[in-house]
Amino acid sequence: MIEFQAVTKRFDDGTTAVDNLDMSVEAGTITVFVGPSGCGKTTSLRMVNRMIEPTNGTVLVDGEDIRKSNPALLRRRIGYVIQQAGLFPHRTVLDNIATVPLLSGWTRRKARARAAELLELVGLDATMGKRYPAQLSGGQQQRVGVARALAADPPVLLMDEPFSAVDPVVREGLQDELLRLQADLDKTIVFVTHDIDEAVRIGEKVAVFREGGRLAQYAAPAELLSNPADDFVSSFVGKDRGYRGLSFLEADGIELRGVSTIGLHEEQSSTVGGLDWTLVLDEDRRPRGWLAPGAVVHGEPADEELRPGGSLYTAGTALRGALDAALSSPSGLGVVVDDDGRYTGVVTAQQVIDLIEERRKEAA
Amino acid sequence: MIEFQAVTKRFDDGTTAVDNLDMSVEAGTITVFVGPSGCGKTTSLRMVNRMIEPTNGTVLVDGEDIRKSNPALLRRRIGYVIQQAGLFPHRTVLDNIATVPLLSGWTRRKARARAAELLELVGLDATMGKRYPAQLSGGQQQRVGVARALAADPPVLLMDEPFSAVDPVVREGLQDELLRLQADLDKTIVFVTHDIDEAVRIGEKVAVFREGGRLAQYAAPAELLSNPADDFVSSFVGKDRGYRGLSFLEADGIELRGVSTIGLHEEQSSTVGGLDWTLVLDEDRRPRGWLAPGAVVHGEPADEELRPGGSLYTAGTALRGALDAALSSPSGLGVVVDDDGRYTGVVTAQQVIDLIEERRKEAA
Amino acid sequence: MFDDISRYLGSESNQELVLTQLLQHIYLSLLPLVIGLALAIPLGWLAHRYRAASGVLFGISNAVYTIPSLALFVVIPVVLGTQILDSVNVVVALTIYTTALLVRPVCDALEAVPFHVVAAATAMGYRPLRRFVTVELPLSVPVLSAGVRVASVSNISLVSVGALIGTGGLGVLFTSGFQISYTAPIIIGIVLTLVLALVVDLLLVGLRRVLTPWLRAGGTT
Amino acid sequence: GDPLKGGGGGGAAGGPIVIGSADFSESELLMHIYAGALSNAGVQVSTKPRVGSREVLVKALQDKSLAVVPEYSGNLLQYFDKQSPASQPDEVLAALKQKVPSGLEVLEKSAAEDSDALVVSKDVAGQGVKSIADLGPKCSQYVLGAAGEWKDRWPAKLTQLYGCTFKEIKTTDAAGPVTVEALKSGQVQVANLFTTASAITANGFVALEDPKRLYPAQNVLPLIRSEALDEKGKAALNKVSAALTTEKLTALNKRIEVDKETVADVAKEFVTQNKL
Amino acid sequence: MAAGGRNHVIFQELFAWLGDPAHWQGQDGVPNRALEHLGYTLLAVFGAAAIAIPLGLYVGHSGRGGVVLVGLSNAMRALPTLGLVTFLFLVAGGSEAGTIVGLIVLAVPPILAGTYAGVQDTDRGVVDAARGMGMTGWQRLWQVEVPNALPLLMGGLRNAALQVVATASVAAYVGLGGLGRLLLDGLRVIDYSKVLAGALFIALLAVLLDLVLAGLQRVIVPRGLRVAAAAVARKPKAKVKPQAEAPEAVGRTNA
Ligand SMILES: Nc1ncnc2c1ncn2[C@@H]1O[C@H](COP(=O)(O)OP(=O)(O)OP(=O)(O)O)[C@@H](O)[C@H]1O
Ligand SMILES: Nc1ncnc2c1ncn2[C@@H]1O[C@H](COP(=O)(O)OP(=O)(O)OP(=O)(O)O)[C@@H](O)[C@H]1O
Ligand SMILES: [Mg+2]
Ligand SMILES: [Mg+2]
Q: Is there a domain that residue A63 lies in?
């Protein structure tokens, strides 16, 4: 657990970077600091490991005032990951990861063994260990950065825009990886970003900062989207927030319907489906497209006949996917698949809307 | 009109950047090239003004093979805008804009006058003309970049990720500005981006490139979203494409409903609205928030009572906004406002869904 | 020591001597700076434009730098057939050094011109020469001026060595003072050299400011 | 003057004529004296001090960089004719007039003589060494300090006359502070200095006698490029030679080397006092 | 041009000079002069390194006094070699030590600038990460800043060596040995073969020394940094040269 108690930071030039911050980060959660550039996110984060000393107020880590610990020793107990990883260019990947264990007096052998373990944990091949940072892609470097921060198994992890230098696709992979890791490791993670999408995707709690280093709202992501504290927050979380908020609505209770289907390689003698849309599946029962009502098919459906399907909704995930599947489907029926991508049913936009309305009523 | 006829570009190191490209860009339209990094968008663009010479094939501008014109003269007839604007840091804004006219032999006086005109056209204050580019914000620099490209009134404009270095809010403003300009100017614009949102927002036609410089689909944005040619395109246009596709559905025919409202500064004696939600408006009838059913208010509604509203839907714009307004509203009622932001009514998600279904049926 | 210096400078003929040598020193160090820069610009452009040329040019300029100045001063009249006491010898030698010293900074400076600015110029229909003169060269001034400052300091300090081969300059104060074990002229010579270097440096900084008004406007290239 | 023509002041074709000096202060002094006398005689002059060694000076006269330089008769003769046996003042001058290459000429010699001399430290002198003849047999124990060019001129003759071959010849400078310091500190035991050098008495050194005339007579005289000076100019220089004596020269040297008076000032005063 | 024919003769004479065994023996022989020259150079470079490296590391690491240091070392570059050497000779009463001190003074600026720039140029993110991981000041200096500073530091050292090799020839004027003797003595008697031979051997010595230092640089600069520099150079659009490959960036003077 990390507590900020009336923490203020004023730099020598008079800038107030953090203004009277009072908040506590729960142990074992990912808490995200988000806000526009210059709003004091980095400053707040760095006061936790004493890279910056507060002007006023107290920071506690696990109940202890951090001013009582030696900064170097404190930092070895707190993992720190920064943008572009900050890897040591002159050391191999393995030696980079082994840094903190070595500083803490482990033997080289033990530190290396631990580093190899971590390399695997973050999903990198053991052969990467001998490379130098410059020989890795941006995404791989960030993984090494995370592994290095985890090396001495610190209870707390500070991450300052760790993924902002990599492209969107890799970035999403890294976010998933972090969530997977956290499910096992249960660290107390403070994660800084200026990307609201990343914040709501990753955070269990999100702290929105506004200019001048003041905390605008501190809440769970769903709450943030559905109930922004004020105009600043609502404009910061963006205009699609209603739709994005659906990411936090569970789909349980939604009833899957059926639709007529045919196999891609099944021979069809003539008209299929009559007045309804027909879903075409391949051998593995994965959806391949739709046949419009009254489509006439001889033999296998030709490519011209096959209307591409919409996005697919994986059963059990949030409502956002279900609505999009329905909206994007030419039939108006969102295709629902299981984890293996096999057809299990369809949903309509109407069902999603009804469910949302029901939930809203329950909440009231 | 710009035509690519079987155009291929292979670089010296063997990279095939553009592979047998066959397409024509219609005069007077904005055509967007979109695709993942390295798929040959820039290369294709730069073959139009001979910054890069094709290995094979022919590029025609207005029916004429560009190999027949002198490169420098050709380029003066084609505007070019790039990321970070590429402004000359050592020249004032006015002189930057006057560059091509001066190159083409205009008098300095005439070129400056033209530059001042353009400055106004792109929405910048005349006083900006004396500044140097470094004294402008990123968004202002991009405007100057556009003004400079338009200076000699070229029929064709090439824009390579012109807005990708500015932040999302400014970016949207620039996109609107470009659309506004184009409505007047009617240039043939080729616009490169790797952001699919920008592509569908701006383009009348969108060309999706895939790795290896091949054209994957060339279609209008709505078509692209509703009917992606293959898996590559459908994964590239993203998983929210159903929702995003609503940007292309007009909202006419949607019937606005009413809801009980109170003025922010009107004194309320006690319970307001009974079982329904009440919308709070300020003096200008701009929505300020909701009061939950059964809320008890004495005097002005206190901040704790006032539930922040959802996103607002401007009447007459696409359905996307209407759905988001409804989904994000605590009452389930999306607030509709006019162009001045004044309350005009509410819509429900149900209405939007019904309208979509209706349209879908019509289309079938 | 100060007594010595004021006594030395008290003599009118010494004043005249110091002044003449100072002027000669300025001439001998600045003329090569100007010529060397003029030569280094096209060479640096070559190095910037063609990778192969850069290898050759940088190789040669490094090699030139291993030749001690004294040797070059002595050898030049032999190679050029100039008069042995001709100040042209020093000018030529220092021009060679200056050129060698500036080729890389010119290349670096051109390389530091933002790529997209050059591309934009090309796309607007600049022809190469005009682009070089009106866009690339002005924008290379900030980086280039650092190189020119190093070269000016280097030249000013090198000219003194010319005293060993009988060309003038403040170096004469060193040899004549040394011959009679008299430190006053040596100190005066050293101080004047330092002051000269400082003044020229300030002038170059001023020149750079004049040539780069856009930087003062609060921007960075 | 025009620096572009810095080296082109050889006279003749208008413009000032350039008077040069070797790179030691006595030569510079003489240069200034010549310059003063010539300019009083109405010749336009400029000076170029510290040009270098005799080799350089002669070369500079020949390539027209210079017009006049002060010289020493014996060494100059030696330079033009290594074999010349002449050693008495008049002999030397006569031989010199013959050997000077065409285009150059020497004017009247002065009575002032500044000979090279082998000088020993107090210690060596204490062992009874008074002349080079005394030194001869012991030479192989000693290191000599002299300018670089000494080695090319004198060793053979020294061996021949006195049977003296030094253990080592260390290159120092042309009778300047390096040589003096070397002798003072014991790095060398014998050094080549000039008889008029004030350092000899100042440091208790002893200038060895030269009974067999290793070094020929060294009368001060001007070496000029003939076409650079007209008769009036030559007369002015001859007047200088007439006024100079060894004693006067030694006294002038002392004022420069010990009292650190300015060379040009000392010269100017001399010119005025002697109405040159 | 007449120079062509003259040059021909000069080079013939030079070869004759080089072929004369007398020039290769004894105190005045090339081998001895070269050794003396090397001796002065090493003494001066080591002396300067002993002063400049710790100072540069301190200033670079602590960030204190950087402006003053850079200004001062630039001013030192303007010091005229000949003036400094003659002055120190007279002040030190003719001992060689004075001249060596002069050479050291001249070698300090490039090493200082290289060391300082090397520490300064270490990626701020990397230093920050080191601090964030709990490295103490010393650990950060030795484990991070020094290894990362090595390319520029070695560049400075190489510049200094080149400069001292060249400058040491001027020191012959105040009676030092070394290859400068060939230059000065040759000049006194207008023996161009000797002068050219001197120039040749000094240049040769400079090149050899630079090669040795380049080799040393390859050995001590961590491989990861070279890999990184190469990676930057390979990027087609990033035409900016990596700092590590441009030691000349710190500027050079010669004598
Ligand atoms: N060392 C410093 N001295 C003075 N001001 C500083 C210093 N460090 C940061 N600031 C200022 O403090 C404010 C907060 O900075 P901080 O780095 O915490 O912002 P941030 O939220 O992390 O922004 P970003 O998203 O750009 O990283 C800014 O106005 C910044 O300019
Ligand atoms: N001058 C060049 N030499 C060699 N290969 C090049 C060159 N320019 C581009 N390429 C390669 O050609 C391919 C297409 O490059 P291009 O710049 O057209 O891509 P792009 O679609 O514009 O990508 P981005 O979105 O990153 O700008 C890439 O693989 C790129 O590496
Ligand atoms: Mg930050
Ligand atoms: Mg591109």
A: yes
pLDDT digits (tens, 9 = 90+) for C52-99: 888 899 989 888 877 888 888 878 877 787 777 778 888 999 999 999
Q: Are residues A242 and A268 in the same domain?
A: no
**Of residues B229, B326, B356, nearest to A349 (C-beta):** B356
Q: Write out the two tokens for E64.
A: 């204190």
Give domain status of residue B254, yes or no.
no
Mean pLDDT value across residues B119-135: 90
Mean pLDDT of E18-22: 87
For D262, phi then psi, to 5°, come to -75, 135
- Average pLDDT of the residues in D205-230: 89
Nearest-CA residue for atom 16 of ligand 2 = B40
Say whether the ipTM exceeds 0.95. no
Identify the sign of the CA torsion D124, D126, D128, D133. Answer: positive
The answer to whether residues A117 and A230 belong to one domain is yes
Compute the distance from residue A115 Cα to the ligand 4 centre, in Å: 38
Q: Which of A248, A276, A307 is the last residue of a domain?
A: A248
The band of B269, judged by pLDDT with boundaries at 50, 70 and 90, is low
CA distance E65 to A220: 48
pLDDT at residue B362, as a whole number:
82
Q: Between helices E180-188 and D54-62, what is the axis angle to 10°?
A: 50
pLDDT of B298-323, one tens digit each?
Answer: 767 777 777 877 888 888 888 888 88
What φ, ψ does residue B60 adopt, rounded to 5°?
-115, 135
Res. A71: pLDDT tops 50:
yes
Determine whether D102 is exposed, middle or buried from the number of CB atoms within 10 Å of its CB (0-12, 13-18, 19+): exposed
Say if residue B112 is in the same domain as residue B50. Answer: yes
Amino acid at B116: A
Position E182, amino acid: L
CATH number for B26: 3.40.50.300
Chains with ≥3 CB–CB distances under 8 Å to D: C, E
Return residues 89-128 of C near D (CB < 8 Å).
Answer: none
Q: Which of E63, E61, E59, E101 is nearest to E84 (CA)?
A: E101
Among C84, C21, D261, D147, residue whose Cα is nearest residue E80: C21
pLDDT tens digit sequence for A319-341: 888 888 888 888 888 899 998 88
Q: What is the least distance, in Å, from the CA of E234 to any CA of chain D?
A: 49
Q: Please check whether residues A137 and A283 belong to one and the same domain.
A: no
In a domain, A254, yes or no: no
Ligand 4 centre distance from Cα of residue B199 (Å): 14
Q: Is residue B9 scored above 80 in pLDDT?
A: yes
Q: Are C30 and C94 in contact (CB under 8 A)?
A: no
**Residues B283, B139 share a domain:** no
Q: Provide the pLDDT for residue B257.
A: 87
Same domain for B202 and B278?
no
CATH number of the structural domain spanning residue B324 = 3.10.580.10
Question: Structural domain of residue B284, as residue ranges?
Answer: 261-363
Q: Do D28 and C14 touch (CB under 8 A)?
A: no
3-state percent breakdown (helix, strand, coil) of chain C, nearest 5: 85, 0, 15
The structure's pTM equals 0.81
The Å distance, Cα A36 to ligand 1 centre, comes to 11
Q: Same domain for A275 and A186?
A: no
**Cβ separation of D147 and E184 shorter than 8 Å?**
no
- Average pLDDT on B217-244 reads 83
State whether B225 and B326 are in the same domain: no
Question: Taking residues E223-232, what's their average pLDDT?
Answer: 83
Q: What's the domain count of chain A?
A: 2
Chains that touch E (3 or more CB pairs under 8 A): A, C, D
User: Is the predicted pLDDT of residue E245 greater than 50, yes or no?
Assistant: no
In a domain, B78, yes or no: yes
Q: Where among A248, A279, A300 does a domain terminate?
A: A248
Q: Would you state the structure tokens that stand for residue E242, as one six-digit string? A: 């990596």
Chain A contact for E100 (CB, 8 A cutoff)? no
| pLDDT band, very low/low/confident/very high, at E237 (cuts 50, 70, 90) | very low
